[in-house]
């Protein structure tokens, strides 16, 4: 048991909070079952809680994902906006989540971004302007296997 205490002592308060949020998400999913509940409403509520800069980016990314890849289910993942069928394919990590200097748009291994033997799976975001929006659209389209 001491090993568990030592390993959890190595996590920041923000990391522990994210793990607690994930555990709560799993418990909620088990209680309501796959058919019940509204994961998108939960995601939108999380976005609404974000500080202004993070919220603006998260809202824009949400709109892009819903437009470009409507087959990806919106939900929360470790308390962050995420999208995917059974697993999170992509997620938005607000800068405020871990007190970082930038937000992150990340992709998990189900994302279809493969490009040779090496490719990025996370992108730093400080804003979502026209150029960033175009890049995000393309990444989401590829990640979802849309074309």
Automatic annotation (TrEMBL):
Residues 1-38 are annotated as: Disordered. Pfam families: DUF1801. Residues 55-143 form the YdhG-like domain. InterPro entries: YdhG-like. Residues 13-28 have a biased composition (Basic and acidic residues). This is DUF1801 domain-containing protein. It comes from Cellulomonas hominis.
